[in-house]
Write a structure and sequence with these properties.
Blueprint: H1 3-37, H2 39-42, E1 46-49, E2 52-56, H3 93-110, E3 137-138, H4 140-154, H5 158-167, E4 169-170, E5 181-183, H6 184-194
Antiparallel strand pairs: 1-2, 3-5, 4-5
Length: about 200
């Protein structure tokens, strides 16, 4: 057998062996271990309400209506399949216009329930997209502004809604990284369980 033929055969065997090992055996092993060790996370951290899956605690989604807390804006319409954000810089006219539109919509939705609310009170996460476009969290400041609207519409005491916000706030990662965030889906589910819409 010539040297070239031997090299081609050795290369082909290596490709087949590595494809089977790294493309089939390894992924199946990791999937199996994940299913045994942490099945909830391995299956997408799904959240159910009344026995029906309503979302994932890891992926934001759109909520409409005055009775619900609203997520951050999303360029992907909250699609977990195509996560991205607008890459415009601070001098981008397009980004400036988007933020102005989001700010106007946010004030229009929430100001009737808190007359003291001004443009300066609106937190950045209420009018800007997250890096993925599907962040499931909003800031505590954003949630506390929306609490006035949700409490009024659901006829709940504002103090009770703020307790629910605290109950569904995730702390900083490892106690030091990032900021505390309120999981919007979990908070809205808690509201449905406490004061269902009729």
């Amino acid at each position: 057998m010539s040297g070239l033929r031997r090299d081609l055969l050795t290369g082909a065997i290596a490709i087949v062996a590595l494809t089977l090992a790294l493309g089939l055996v390894y992924p199946l092993a990791i999937t199996g271990i994940s299913q045994v060790v942490f099945p909830g996370s391995a299956n997408g951290s799904k959240i159910s309400l009344d026995g029906q899956v309503v979302g994932s605690e890891l992926i934001g989604q759109e909520f409409k209506g005055k009775a619900y807390f609203h997520s951050r804006p999303s360029a992907t319409e909250y699609s977990g399949n195509v996560t991205f954000f607008g890459n415009g810089g601070p001098n981008s006219a397009e980004v400036r216009d988007e933020i102005r539109e989001e700010l106007a919509a946010y004030l229009k939705l929430n100001k009737p329930y808190d007359r003291s609310l001004t443009r300066e009170d609106v937190p950045v996460d209420a009018v800007t997209q997250s890096a993925s476009g599907v962040d499931p969290h909003i800031s505590q400041a954003n949630a506390r502004i929306q609490a006035h609207r949700v409490a009024a519409v659901r006829k709940l005491a504002l103090d009770r809604v703020e307790e629910l916000i605290s109950d569904h706030t995730d702390d900083r990662f490892l106690g030091v990284l990032g900021e505390p965030g309120v999981n919007v889906l979990q908070l809205n589910i808690a509201l449905e369980e406490e004061a269902p819409l009729k």
